[in-house]
Amino acid sequence: MLNRFSESELEAYLDEALPAATMASIEEGLRHDRQLVERLIAINGRRDAGVHSLGEVWRRHRISCPNRQQLGSFLLNALPPEQTEFIRWHIDVAGCRVCQANLDDLTQQQQAEQAVDSDQRRKKYFQSSAGLLKPQQ
Fold first, then answer.
1. How far is Cα 87 from Cα 104, in angstroms, rounded to an integer?
2. Where are the alpha helices (DSSP H) in the chain?
3. Is the distance from CB of 43 to CB of 11 less than 8 angstroms?
4. Residue 16 in contact with residue 97, Cβ under 8 Å?
5. What are phi and psi of 102, to 5 degrees?
6. 67-114: per-residue pLDDT in tens?
7. How far apart are CA 86 and CA 79, in angstroms?
8. Over residues 50-70, mean pLDDT
9. How many CB atoms lie within 10 A of CB 73?
10. Hey, is 101 helix, strand or coil?
């Protein structure tokens, strides 16, 4: 079981930058495989000593992650096709949990704003037509 997970996967595990299923698989492995625990300890030791791989730096600083403005534009379908395709890949295939959380937050925010707008519009319609309604006799 020693090489079940790559070094980069273990580094990403420490950064919580893996899809949930992969994180759970590594955690399960850590419960039963002392060699895997030792590999993780060695990676942490290198990190504490200041030795970082390029992939680790890339993940830690989220260099490939779109910002919230880009994610908002993605939700509005206002991005060029190649950016839309990258964000879809980044979330669906790469499984970036940080971007997925941002996207979920933006979606909830958008839905809340739409509900408020709809409520305000309904009130305006009612107020503008209130004088036209005749009381029933």
1. 14
2. 7-14, 20-32, 34-48, 54-60, 68-75, 81-92, 97-129
3. yes
4. yes
5. -60, -45
6. 999 999 999 999 999 999 999 999 988 888 889 999 999 999 888 877
7. 11
8. 80
9. 17
10. helix
On the question of pLDDT at 127 being above 90, the answer is no
| Structure confidence at residue 1 (pLDDT) | 47
46: its two tokens: 């290198």
Query: Is residue 50 pLDDT above 90, yes or no?
Result: no
Q: CB pairs under 8 A, 24+ apart, for 7-10?
A: 7/39, 7/43, 7/53, 8/53, 8/55, 8/56, 10/39, 10/40, 10/43
Spatial CA neighbour of 106 closest among 83, 76, 79: 76
Structure tokens at 105: 């937050």
| Structure tokens given for 81 | 């096709």
Task: For the full predicted model, state whether its pTM sits above 0.85.
Answer: no
C-alpha dihedral sign at 89, 94, 95, 97: negative
